[in-house]
Hints:
Strand content: 5-15%
Mean pLDDT: 90
CATH class of the domain at 174-329: Mainly Alpha
Distance between the termini: 24 Å
Low-confidence stretches: 142-149
Largest sheet: 4 strands, mixed
CATH superfamily of the domain at 174-329: Butyryl-CoA Dehydrogenase, subunit A, domain 3
Order of helices and strands: HHHHHEEEEHEEHHHHH
Number of strands: 6
Radius of gyration: 20 Å
Strand order of the largest sheet: 1-2-3-4
Number of helices: 11
Shape: globular
Structural class: alpha+beta
CATH topology of the domain at 174-329: Butyryl-CoA Dehydrogenase, subunit A, domain 3
Amino acid sequence: xxxxxxxxxxLLDQVERLLTDRAGPDTLRANERxxxxxxxxxxxxxxxxxxxxxxxxxGGAGLGWGDVVAIWHVLGRHGAPIPLGESMVAxxxxxxxxxAPRPGPLGLAVAGAPVPWGRRAAAVVMVSxxxxxxxxxxxxxxxxxxxxxxxxxxxxxGVPADEGRLPERFGPEADLLAGALLNAARIAGALEAVLxxxxxxxNTRKQFGRPIGGFxxxxxxxxxxxxxxxxxxxxASHAGRAADRYGLAGAAFEIASAKVVAGEAAGTVAxxxxxxxxxxxxxxxxxxxxxxxxxxxxxDGCGAERVWARRLGQAALERGGxxxxxxxxxx
Length: 331
């Protein structure tokens, strides 16, 4: 096992333990009421997680995209109520542009869309024309009360405090591609949590004297959900490895494919989970809706599946029919 593999395994274990201890359903509910989990963020920062994707010479851990996809999977499985994934991407973009990552939560502004935890951000990072721009976040401006509530907040563009040029491997849409990869990986993790909840419920909820999981119709639903969950995990992992091999710009096909697979699965599995749980899945005391609502949010974030499917179709038409099979199988 290489040194990077060792570090990845250590960080995965730390993230898993941190979120298990500090990011349960009660924390998620409090977060949605606007309570910022200060201790959770402080521990994540102390572990060096926000800069894990930045190179070591910029104060990071030097992990690759494939490594952090595994970490983002864990974030999704716990519905992590902090902008850790966004901060990791933002720090990586800053470092690639020659800018030292800033402390505190970093917001990622993509194509004018609302910024997750925008009012909490110490700084906001965006990409424009191949340049990475850093501007002070709302949390650092006088008179604004920082909050952690989702859905995302709109952050007005300001005068950049710093600007750098991204390498060609990142491309002019590095923020969009990295954000799509982040959301695909988080969807993979959240789907895993939703499937576990649904299987557990089906095995304990009884009807007509036996668990509903014993009925063939329910078993078929769970089998379909399990297939979708596995497909998303594979697609996200493959996209992360492609980004390491070819750069974000060169992995646009794999990232787009992962986002399409993840988006479609988010809709399918959420529907199955709520069908099996019936009305209880929407009640405040049950945790299911905490994850399915995040699935729907991440599904739309950085382009819904229809957006990426259209891109894939246009790219296939431009390349021509003779190139389609080689494009699908060459890598």
